[in-house]
Amino acid sequence: MLILLPPSETKRDGGAPDTALDLAALRFPALTEPRTAVLDALGLLDEDPQVAARALKLGPTQSHELERNRAINRSPQLPAMDRYTGVLFDALDAQSLSVGAREFAGRHLVVHSALFGLVGALDPIPAYRLSHDSRLPGVSLQRTWRDAIAAELARETFVLDLRSESYVDMGPAPSQAAYVRVVSADGDGRRRALNHFNKKSKGLFTRALLEAGIEHSDAASLTAWAAGAGFDLTVADGGELELLVA
Fold this sequence. Notes:
Elements: E1 2-5, H1 32-44, H2 49-56, H3 63-70, E2 78-79, H4 80-83, H5 87-92, H6 99-108, E3 109-113, E4 117-120, E5 124-125, H7 141-154, E6 159-161, H8 165-168, E7 177-185, E8 191-193, H9 196-212, H10 219-229, E9 232-235, E10 241-244
Parallel strand pairs: 1-3, 1-6, 6-7, 7-10
Antiparallel strand pairs: 2-5, 3-4, 7-8, 9-10
Helix pairs in contact: 6-9
């Protein structure tokens, strides 16, 4: 089972002393070549801060993001699940997980990064700024990642896909994947997708999965577990999973 999360725009600073980026230390070694290409293209933006700010869609108060990218090859590393912040990752609260849950995450939790492709939860990565819609010189993120990531995901027996649709487009999951959509119901029982609470609910759901430590083989196993764990998770039309929240 692979639990697949989207990344976050925001990252935690800092990391382990005397560490630096090492692509050989990341999971999915078949992605080393596209990772190198994207890193090289990102490095070209260092030559002109104004061009870099436009390419990365940064405002005047976000100049520190440019410095992060300039230091990307020498800045200290943190496990990916600890590096990302924001609503989803705050709800996941990776640093407070039990030892067993973190070990399970190391085997089964993956984040889809615009910079590194797929990274394991415990893969050491630096703080950086790059989004799915960033524009790099000479490199299309969509073309670089789409087939490479799809090929990696196709090797998995079951993928639980909690990504946003923009990242799904940048690396489609295989037919055996289960895409999760967070919804709420109105007084008449009609369901609608959520935005802010979508991220929080995915973080809490992922945390419960990691703490339970069960390797589900399909959607039926997952929904059966969810019912006992207090989550309203059902199979909707088209095979998507709907996580109903109040």
